[in-house]
Amino acid sequence: MKIAFASKDNIYINEHFGWCKKFFIYEVNKNNYNFIKEVQSEKKIENELDKLSYKIKCLENSDILYVEQIGPKASLLVKDSKIFPIKASNEKEKIIDILKKLIKMQENPPIWMKRILAK
């Protein structure tokens, strides 16, 4: 699974999807996770739909998107792109903690994760 995190620092999930300047992409396997890369998403685009489309392209076909906040229109567009958006419980939620939870979740995955794993 590829997971994109909207983050200012690659430590916490602390960015709003539409305002995010960079995404940190990780891959989660059965027993571990690996950092893939940082993707810049700073391009300023005035048109809302074009901006959201650009942000989704920056996710580089991730399976899951973790954000601090995401608007309803953006959430629908992300889902339409076959990416599962998840809001962090708070701005102090750590990326490493989520990665560990995703590894553990694979033991008894929820339906949304089963769809991702079946790809």
Helix and strand arrangement:
Blueprint: E1 2-6, E2 22-28, E3 33-40, H1 48-58, E4 64-67, H2 72-80, E5 84-87, H3 95-105, H4 111-117
Parallel strand pairs: 1-4, 4-5
Antiparallel strand pairs: 1-2, 2-3
**Beta-strand content:** 15-25%
Overall pLDDT score: 95
Total of helices: 4
Q: Can you list the strand order of the major beta sheet?
A: 3-2-1-4-5
As a percent range, the share of helical residues equals 25-40%
> What sort of overall outline do the alpha carbons produce when their principal axes are compared?
globular
E-strand count: 5
For the record, give the distance between the C-alpha atoms at the N and C termini, rounded to a whole number.
9 Å
Point out poorly predicted stretches.
none
Order of helices and strands: EEEHEHEHH
Structural class: alpha/beta
